[in-house]
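Key idea: predict the complex, not the pieces.
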Amino acid sequence: VKFKSPPVNSLSLDFLTELSIGLEKLENNRGCRAVIFTSAIPKIFSAGLDITEMCGKSTEHYAEFWRAVQNIWLRLYGSNMVTVAAINGSSPAGSCLLALSCDYRIMADNPKFVIGLNESQLGIVAPFWFKDTFVNVVGHRIAERSLQLGSLHSAPEALQLGIVDELVPEEKLQDKAAAVVAQWLALPDHARQITKSMMRKSVLDRLLTHQEEDVQNFVGFISKESIQKSLRMYMEMLKKRKG
Amino acid sequence: VKFKSPPVNSLSLDFLTELSIGLEKLENNRGCRAVIFTSAIPKIFSAGLDITEMCGKSTEHYAEFWRAVQNIWLRLYGSNMVTVAAINGSSPAGSCLLALSCDYRIMADNPKFVIGLNESQLGIVAPFWFKDTFVNVVGHRIAERSLQLGSLHSAPEALQLGIVDELVPEEKLQDKAAAVVAQWLALPDHARQITKSMMRKSVLDRLLTHQEEDVQNFVGFISKESIQKSLRMYMEMLKKRKG
Amino acid sequence: VKFKSPPVNSLSLDFLTELSIGLEKLENNRGCRAVIFTSAIPKIFSAGLDITEMCGKSTEHYAEFWRAVQNIWLRLYGSNMVTVAAINGSSPAGSCLLALSCDYRIMADNPKFVIGLNESQLGIVAPFWFKDTFVNVVGHRIAERSLQLGSLHSAPEALQLGIVDELVPEEKLQDKAAAVVAQWLALPDHARQITKSMMRKSVLDRLLTHQEEDVQNFVGFISKESIQKSLRMYMEMLKKRKG
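Result:
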């Protein structure tokens, strides 16, 4: 799967819906046993959740958007396929969540590329299932510190913290991803799938049990005038940077 | 906050009560957003819980003392403020718990300074919430081994195990702590606070749900003649060392 | 305890029953406070669960065998004694579980010796309590990856991942194990035992609560024709290798 939604692969409602349908098709296609995620856009894996979907819209829109985010994660974190992130650019916030939900993460060895759950920098908060996914990858202490500071880690730092599994030169990233997929597919599917489910079920179930509550929580939080103001300021800053 | 209770900053009932009132005031003072803990006494951050409070006293006294220990931890681990431990001396047992409950731990780079939950060396047992706090910092395996052996780790070892976040030369400790506070305060308060609460709530709730049971458990354990004997022997040993 | 069941210390029903009775005797012998596990057979600590017990037998036999596996683990993981694994050879699958259930693991510094929970390589699945034990030692991420791939790690890699606590030259393994036991026995028994129980109780209770369900789950899984076929193929492969 190549993310290609210029300029920065923002995870808009349309993008998430299309991705969800695509993943569902692959999941149900018994000939497809693995998927590699990468970006067709230089320097950016994905910019994360599209802030324009969270700003100045109706509460119904916020709820619909959030359900789409939940659905992608449920599908990806619980996928029976082997999932590999070939991270060939920066990967903040929601984009980092996608990477963390894969079975294996390879990142281009470029210290300019950063990755992390930096929500708190924007004045918003990663929900509990972002946190659970992160803790399952890096442990409680690293997650606690990184989430509170909203840290974006350079590729070498991400490797050291365990956020990604290995770094390779960018030109070798796709070959390496294919090699990793081959290694994982060498295992009997049913044994690998049952094992994966055993590792992830409790965290998946936690969102499934609280899914609607989590939507309401998001809508209530994002609708606050103070949060809307934070997001508008952040978007202004992004525009100025580009300008 | 500078601990200054000669000779060794033992956490007596009076000291804990004063600290609790002080922390409550700071917590309620909206102008105060961060607190740094350090010691005014050379070579010792704090000696930990005052053993004289646990030895030869009434069960009522033990219960009162233990509630004070619980309250400090609930206040500190659940604080909305940025909390930094500037550990400028040794930090055993209850003193280590205070450090582990902060958001960030900086220790003076002196291999003679030690830190750890060494309760089992004294024949007593760190309760489940000491353990939960420790596991959240260093993970299950390091906690299991260190708690069973009652290990006191030198500063370099503590860094390697993740018990502290960094070591700096003692003369730079306070400046570094101030710089860390500035870094953490650069984040929007509400996002940082909600994130912190999300990371720590389940462990805090566990004590809140079992608080009175934990008091009774402590009182029952500490009142045993065998435990009292262990503590008296330990105090004798300390006195001889000083002599 | 020296495992000596040629040719490869397979954990057969007889072997497990004998080991269980032996451990129970030691546990009830107040003069015995520690136990070291090692192998009397060169190059192999133990080959793990005996596959012949899981292949071509009755469902009653499978159930009896699985209860024996559960009982060994419950006894070992919950032992009041200090338990040290002196791993002087390879230690796959069920053999790795025994090592992981000890308080401390020392492995011979020989890169040809491997250790890991490689069940998925055989098309079978490590049950949740194997997984819980593994996660408690190495954390969630390393366990997730290693279990899905059914990895067997060389001794140096096992040290790096935290599967074992230290490597020593094979000729010094027994002396080192004795030294470790002495170090752990220097602590007051009751404090060490209560602490150990506190660290392990939730994982032990999880199997105790689901013990019969876990037996039925194993019997149902292992009785499948597809699984039986996998195991027969694996045994054929082993025979050819030897031949």
